[in-house]
Amino acid sequence: MLSGWNIPSVTIEDHPRFGWRGLMLDVSRHFFTVAQVKDYIDQMVKYKFNLLHLGLTNDQGWRIQIKSLPKLTEVGAWRVERTGTFGNLSKPQPGEPATYGGFYTHEDIKELVKYAADRFVNILPEIDVPGHSLAAIASYPELSCTPGEYYVSPGDRFMVWPGGGQHFYGLLDNTICPANEKAYEFLDKVFTEVAQLFPFGYIHMGGDETARNFWEKSEQIKALMKKENLKDLDEVQSYFVKRVEKIINSKGKKMIGWDEILDGGLAPNAAVMSWRGMKGGIEAAKQGHEVVMSPTDFAYIDYMQGDAAIEPPVYSTLRLKKAYQFEPLPEGVDAKLIKGGQANLWTEQVYNTRHMQYMTWPRAFAIAEVLWSSKEKRNWEYFSKRVENHFKRLDMAGVKYAPSIYDPIITATKKDTASVVVKLETEIEGLDIHYSFDNSFPDNFYPVYKEPLTVPRDAATMKLITYRNNEPIGRMMVLTIAELRKRAGIK
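^ thats the sequence. predicted structure below, dont judge the formating
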């Protein structure tokens, strides 16, 4: 096997399309050590990413030492240990020790910042407020509008997302109270130390997914609304965000937040990171604000990479080909205000670095190319071939990646009240899909998919595998007919 590559002596003239080429790593839901974050930096710089967005705080952990607020790491950095599916994990039991977690000391942060800078990478710190703040509230309960017993969440279900366009709500109040002056004193201390540790010119204040159902009942919030003439809860959050911006600006930094900070009126100097599609970014740019595009439908690399039958379960799918279609600069928007984009790796279901790598690569290749190359030069067929060739290098480097581009895309539809029709596709050309309905494991001697299949009446499973040139290349996939019927809308 080759142990290296040779290239001729050449001169290359090149430049990036966007200056902000980022990856977001959530170190709050699962903690990653300094060495592990350094390794992530080493991987990302190979593909000309220059911004590491660190999600340092959330409901599941507070990961940065704030010397003036020691309970944030004494309490907020630790939780009871659980393994399973996020959102369905059990709550802490009375007296159960909080043994899982960790945090970065000031010295750790300085070490990471220098390591990144030596590789031409900036680090953007995120302190997520007012929502997603259980770890902070468990440490300092007086920050909440709602008296009660608080804990650092191990991944239990304390929020509800009803779907269908309905607003989510909290079963537990995980928000810092905008009507509490102690909240702003707290945040001043936090951002003072954060600003001193991170030389990058921006601080991310989160601002996303704030459950307001407890605010609706709060007498403190009602009094604030009357005092400040705030007509709804959007304006309450905007009041909070604008005060946070003043704090961050006072530290010599510019504030950036998720696109919810538009609700109720955008803070005067804020930049917006657009995640709920491109709409928020477009709106912010039209108001004259800087924007970083990181929409869920193209750039959320915590999503499944292929079919749910074979991928670790997450609530949505983002395939490589779709990620490659990301276009950060919408028509009709001032290009100078679109700073760039990034892919986001939330780690609710990422327990270790091997899975971190699996979720990042190869989709981050697509984001890297989108952010570096001109739109006109992008070509899926050429790109996908380069990705396949690069898999060999990742194999030699011991870096894990998802082979999902070799797995079929499965669409089940209803033929009649009892029958299911299955359509199969592949992301890349030159693959044969072999299938079975008789519970046996198909290989290249089994039928090749040519046209939509009607599932046999009494079949229990469908098995699939892709081959190229009579060699297996995809993974064996097993789907129950019950699952296909469910996808087709047959009860």
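The chain has a mean pLDDT of 96.
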